[in-house]
UniProtKB/TrEMBL annotation:
Organism: Chryseobacterium candidae
Superkingdom of source: Bacteria
Protein name as annotated: DUF3298 domain-containing protein
InterPro entries hit by this protein: DUF3298, PdaC/RsiV-like_sf
Domain DUF3298 residue range list: 183-257
Length: 274
């Protein structure tokens, strides 16, 4: 049997942001951010299940955000990067896409496992879950977290995160080079130094376990899986990415002070960083 994740770089989607951010309104309400007064967010969802056999139940849950006021196709393609088959970005089009994804998932489980599924004698619940969550929209920087999880047999389920920040002023996904000119090897040295600043909460018989005690890598990559607030840049790592599954997901902050002298001028001005 295999473990699957409904990917959104995905790592598709379950829980936990590492710091407080400005929450924005969803479900068709306008945001309170004056800079994006006309910015509107809606969503579509699907939540369904089916029985493959008397012992095997399969569930599919997914949520996509809808942005009726965003018209730039390149930007929208980037926002829905994990759903490359989406051609219609309207609410009706995205709902139809999710319904089709659900049917494809149910059919794939039935067809891929029909040779042995009838041999399952104890109750199992398999699932695929993926969610887009709008975390913040400030200074024309929109942060979306993509969270995916899944289980199709095995010791445990899997989950993963993908963080993306979109520059709504310039209609593009924000890259690390748009924030700082610091070489990646220097950022990676800071990440290693800051590894224990935000512990994942993993415990053992002696209490809390430090992130540094669970690392599986000698170098922590400065990946594209980042976001930020007014104090720090944050790098988010899914289970198995840099540490064992038991460590959970790990978030490492890099302060603006750590990046002093290398910040992009436009970014620094828009974020009002001193």
């Amino acid at each position: 049997m295999k473990n699957t994740i409904a990917v959104i770089a995905l790592s598709s989607f379950l829980a936990v942001t590492a710091c407080k951010k400005n929450e924005t309104a969803a479900s068709g309400e306008k945001t309170e951010n004056k800079a994006t007064e006309e910015f509107v967010v809606d969503s579509v969802k699907v939540n369904d299940s089916t029985k493959i056999t008397d012992s095997l139940k399969v569930s599919f849950t997914s949520k996509l955000l809808v942005f009726p006021t965003l018209k730039d196709k390149k930007l929208l393609d980037s926002i829905y990067f994990h759903n490359v088959n989406i051609k219609d970005f309207s609410k009706a089009g995205l709902q139809a896409y999710l319904d089709n994804e659900k049917n494809n998932y149910f059919n794939s489980v039935k067809n891929d496992n029909k040779d042995w599924a009838s041999d399952v004698t104890y109750a199992q619940n398999w699932y695929s879950s993926s969610h887009m969550n709008l975390i913040s929209n400030s200074n024309d920087y929109m942060h979306i977290q993509y969270l995916g999880s899944g289980y199709e047999g095995g010791a445990h389920d899997n989950y993963g995160f993908s963080e993306r920040v979109f520059d709504l002023k310039n209609n593009k996904k924000l890259e690390l080079k748009d924030i700082t000119s610091m070489p990646k090897n220097k950022i990676e040295a800071i990440l290693m130094k800051n590894i224990d600043k935000m512990n994942s909460g993993t415990m053992d018989g002696d209490g809390e376990v430090k992130n540094s005690e669970m690392l599986l890598v000698d170098k922590i990559p400065a990946s594209d899986n980042f976001y930020f607030d007014d104090k720090n840049l944050y790098f988010h790592y899914s289970p198995y990415e840099i540490a064992a599954f038991a460590a959970g997901d790990i978030t490492i902050p890099v302060s603006w002070e750590d990046l002093k002298g290398t910040l992009n001028t436009e970014f620094k001005e828009r974020m009002k960083i001193k």
